[in-house]
Structure to design on (366 residues):
């Protein structure tokens, strides 16, 4: 789940507005209908012929987590199957060719401008990526990358986001002592809102995830059981890795914010995960996604040192140039149809670039 939205990593559908834009940071807290109106307006502007050519990108990497048949029953934390299917159809209609990450990188490297490429990626290794999304991708012949933290198939992952969701689903009154808040949430709307608030609080400091263990324990919530329920196991991953459309990538051992660790520990998180996955699937593992998208120049070097060839972030954006940094690849996260169209129009990145230009004062004027 994953930096932007740091706020909602691993609870995909609620998030993925652009952290770098003040307007869209504000929009994170807005009513979804208001957000979609903004996205809709932005996409209409971005799709005007005058902007289309100027904002044209070469490729885009999509970031998904869970693909849910019934998003309401999971407190709207993933991507609905309808939005997922719509996205793939829309990409094809708009002339985006769905390719594997390897092929995308290879074509960009040789500056192949014949087509525009879209890559599908899934973080964390959720079961529904296979049970729900895979049949759709098979129909579309769409390759995909699944980034897997070791703790998911080994069931040791401290998946606080799953525990928190189960907590709000199973209780109408929830006390989070560490946050000093009590939530009365008997309906869907209040549960979604409470879950979002606590999730944002953890994303401000990931060590807070461990502060939730007492309430999980009190409520009889076992993260190991949730891991078993929601993540693919080792046997399933081995099978998936042999699927002609699938690639398996790294996502660290325990899914920490790498930037919060010392260098030795952060490198071990990446390298051990790569070794584990290569041993499990008996294939090379060349690509990694930073957990929570927490990365900077040091993590980029560590990813390279650990033997990866690319690393994806949760920074929102498309790929414009063949001279890109392979260890800081942006991705596109979407929460609705208007969000998809706005993101893919490039208008949000255009506004962001303009804002930077407006506020960066040249050396000579300082
Ligand atoms: Zn993740």
């Amino acid at each position: 789940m994953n930096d932007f939205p740091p706020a909602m990593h691993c609870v995909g559908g609620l998030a993925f507005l652009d952290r770098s834009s003040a307007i869209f940071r504000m929009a994170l807290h807005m009513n979804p209908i208001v957000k979609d109106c903004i996205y809709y307006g932005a996409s209409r502007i971005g799709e005007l012929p005058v902007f289309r050519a100027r904002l044209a990108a070469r490729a885009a990497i999509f970031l998904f987590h869970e693909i849910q048949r019934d998003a309401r029953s999971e407190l709207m934390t993933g991507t609905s199957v309808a939005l997922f299917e719509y996205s793939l159809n829309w990409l094809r209609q708009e002339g985006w060719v769905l390719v594997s990450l390897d092929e995308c990188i290879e074509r960009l490297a040789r500056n192949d401008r014949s087509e525009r490429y879209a890559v599908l990626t899934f973080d964390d290794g959720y079961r529904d990526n296979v049970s729900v999304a895979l049949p759709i991708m098979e129909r579309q012949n769409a390759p995909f990358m699944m980034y897997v933290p070791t703790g998911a198939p080994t069931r040791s992952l401290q998946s606080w986001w799953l525990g928190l969701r189960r907590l709000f689903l199973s209780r109408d009154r929830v006390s989070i002592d560490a946050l000093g808040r009590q939530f009365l949430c008997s309906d869907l709307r209040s549960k979604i809102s409470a879950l979002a608030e606590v999730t944002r609080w953890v994303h401000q400091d990931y060590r807070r995830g461990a502060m939730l263990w007492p309430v999980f324990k009190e409520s009889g919530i076992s993260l190991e059981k949730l891991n078993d329920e929601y993540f693919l196991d080792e046997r399933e991953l081995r099978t998936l890795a042999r699927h002609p459309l699938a690639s398996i990538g790294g996502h660290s051992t325990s899914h920490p914010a790498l930037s919060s660790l010392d260098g030795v520990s952060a490198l071990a998180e990446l390298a051990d995960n790569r070794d584990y996955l290569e041993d499990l699937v008996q294939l090379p593992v060349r690509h990694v996604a930073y957990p929570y998208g927490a990365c900077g120049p040091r993590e980029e070097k560590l990813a390279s040192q650990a033997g990866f060839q690319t690393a994806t972030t949760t920074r929102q954006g498309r790929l414009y140039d063949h001279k890109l940094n392979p260890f800081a690849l942006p991705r596109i996260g979407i929460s609705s149809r208007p969000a998809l169209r706005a993101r893919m129009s490039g208008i949000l990145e255009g506004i962001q670039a303009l804002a930077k230009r407006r506020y960066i004062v040249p050396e000579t004027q300082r």
Summary: Residues 1-2, 10, 123-124, 251, 255, 291 surround zinc ion (CB under 6 Å). Residues 1-21, 359-366 have pLDDT under 50 and may be disordered.
